[in-house]
Design brief:
150 residues, alpha+beta, GMP Synthetase, Chain A, domain 3, three-stranded mixed beta sheet, 3 strands, Ribosome-binding factor A
Length: 150
Amino acid sequence: MIRPSNQAPTQRQLRVNEEIHHALAWVLERGQFRDPVLAATPITVTEVRCSPDLRNATVFFTPLGGQGNAEALRDALTRAQSYLRHELSRTVEMKYLPRLSFQVDTSFDEYARIDTLLHRPDVMRDTAVSDEDGDDQDADGQEEGDRHDA
């Protein structure tokens, strides 16, 4: 039976995601690559998502500290896929190791963009809680003087 792709991942998928994530992070941390792009730039693996049949895995990564060209790193990781799968096969025990595809993780950039928007003066002014507007209520919706301690 084929599961719809919009359902949450199974426990097995989650376990395999974490195993591949840790093993791949360890391989990338060692940095034993012939490719100068991979050897020169530290990479952080942020997430691994396996398909429901565990045949394919998408690896989300970001250059550590934002240094380096993310697209060049993705191309270098794609070229090194067979080496990475070979190294993963030494630590991850599975009948079939998933094919790896690499995607640049943009969630940190999105977080920074949203954080910048939230700290703009006009947004800060709109979201600030002020007592000048007559908001003398606490979190329970009671006036400050109406509270009775039992």
